[in-house]
UniProtKB/TrEMBL annotation:
Protein name: Zn-dependent hydrolase
Record's keyword annotation contains Hydrolase: yes
SUPFAM superfamilies per the UniProt record, alphabetical: Bacterial exopeptidase dimerisation domain (SSF55031), Zn-dependent exopeptidases (SSF53187)
Keyword Heme on entry: no
């Protein structure tokens, strides 16, 4: 594989292998963690790794790691830091799972690009001084078990494995049952060995005008479930003055979230609702909604959520209903390693450095090792929807950029593990 044209062609070929997996009639994807579609993508990962002689290790949390090591012995056993635990070296990758009817690129692009970057480096005769590992993190979207970046949070100890094991999906299945065992939880032996993590991801807004960019930060964000309790009753015989209708409180909460976000240049979304009994001719007894709130800084985010909860509670008082907010998954502000971001942007010829409002596994890993993100241009900015797209030429430019970064970071260790400091 040599010319850019070859790379576009190769990308298109490999991308086509995935495009039918978990695809819904509307062109969106239903790739929930450990669903048949996502398991098929895991099988694809194993096949890609095997075809490249990259041994795959599991961390006991549903995350997969395929390693290319210069020191691979006959068994393919690798050791980056010489202590025989994790592979060490440079980690790259992303996730396979999608939001319901999400786009094709959010997640898988980072994994496909990582394998193709390995191919590109090998085709150019490069041999890394440190291992290069491709990761597939589990349940990044939190679409099945409700906690975003569940796999990387388990790996880094950011969530208690016992709590995670009890998380249930919409059918009441617990994570522990799906995994067949309690998740392993924190794996410092794996994480500590890596020098750096670099995640390539499709950009999910319209801020990137160049084919490739580098991330500076991730907005603080989270998801809060709100439960509104009222009184179920007959739609036709119950006087309006006698009602305790939770749908009114819910509707007001949605409008309050919209208004309070706009007042703060923040983002608030209520995209999911459950109504009990969800009958056309009955006043609901209960309505459950989820608030996704994000802001440029933590103080603004806290003020936004507090204002929405306050106004919703006041409204519940007027409606004769009760409302309760529960934080299900929250992520603090992530500022990526500035020096690393500047170094990579320079390495790539001065590409833009920009923040994002989207969460990523890189946000979780950044608390534990030098972390960077490469963005591939999204021409429409649409994401988490079937229309999400990226041009083949930009995706190929992303592979080229990731290969360049992996070559740089696997040639000279970033972290001196003996002293545990980033160089
Ligand atoms: O929701 C997010 O920001 C990410 O796509 N998980
Ligand atoms: Mn996403
Ligand atoms: Mn993603």
């Amino acid at each position: 594989m040599s010319s850019d044209l070859d790379l576009v062609h190769t990308f298109r070929e490999v991308w086509a292998e995935l495009s039918g997996i978990g695809r819904a009639p509307d062109g969106g994807y239903l790739r929930f963690a450990w669903s048949p579609a996502e398991v098929a993508l895991r099988d694809w990962f194993h096949a890609q790794a095997a075809s490249r002689d990259m041994p795959v290790t599991h961390d006991g949390n549903g995350n997969l790691f395929a390693t290319w090591s210069p020191a691979a012995g006959a068994s393919g056993a690798v050791s980056g830091r010489g202590d025989g635990n994790g592979p060490g070296g440079v980690l790259t990758g992303s996730h396979f799972d999608s939001v319901p009817h999400g786009g094709a690129f959010d997640g898988p692009l980072g994994i496909v690009s990582a394998f193709l970057a390995v191919d590109l480096l090998r085709a150019r005769g490069f041999r890394p001084a440190r291992p290069i590992t491709v990761a597939a993190f589990a349940e990044e979207e939190g679409s099945r078990f409700g906690v975003a970046c569940l796999g990387s949070r388990l790996l880094t100890g950011a969530i208690d494995p016992a709590r995670a094991a009890e998380l249930t999906d919409r059918d009441g299945l617990a994570l522990g049952d799906v995994l067949g065992a309690a998740p392993a939880g924190a794996r410092p032996d794996l994480v500590a060995g890596f020098d750096a993590y670099v995640e390539l991801h499709v950009e999910q807004g319209r801020a990137l005008a160049a084919p490739v960019g580098v991330a500076s930060a991730i907005w603080p964000h989270g998801r809060w479930r709100f439960d509104v309790e009222g009184e179920g009753n007959h739609a036709g015989t119950t006087l309006m003055s006698d009602r305790r209708d939770p749908m009114l409180t819910y509707a007001f909460t949605v409008l309050a979230a919209n208004k309070e976000a706009r007042l703060r240049d923040a983002h608030a979304t209520v995209g999911r609702v459950e109504v009990t009994p969800n009958a056309t001719n009955a006043i609901p007894s209960a309505v459950r909604g989820w608030l996704d709130a994000r802001a440029a800084d933590e103080a603004t985010l806290a003020a936004l959520v507090e204002a929405v909860a306050k106004k919703a509670t006041e409204r519940a008082g007027r409606d004769g209903t009760g409302i309760r907010f529960t934080a299900e998954s929250t992520t603090g502000e992530v500022r990526f390693d500035e020096g690393l971001a500047a170094r990579l942007a320079g390495l790539l010829g001065g590409v833009p450095i920009l923040p994002t409002g989207a969460g990523h596994d890189a946000g979780v890993l950044s608390a534990h090792l030098p972390t960077a993100m490469l963005f591939v241009r999204n021409p429409t900015g649409v994401s988490h929807a079937p229309a999400e797209t990226a041009a083949d030429a930009d995706c190929a430019a992303g592979v080229e950029a990731l290969a360049r970064v992996l070559e740089e970071l696997s040639s000279t260790p970033l972290v001196d593990h003996d002293e545990g400091v980033a160089k």
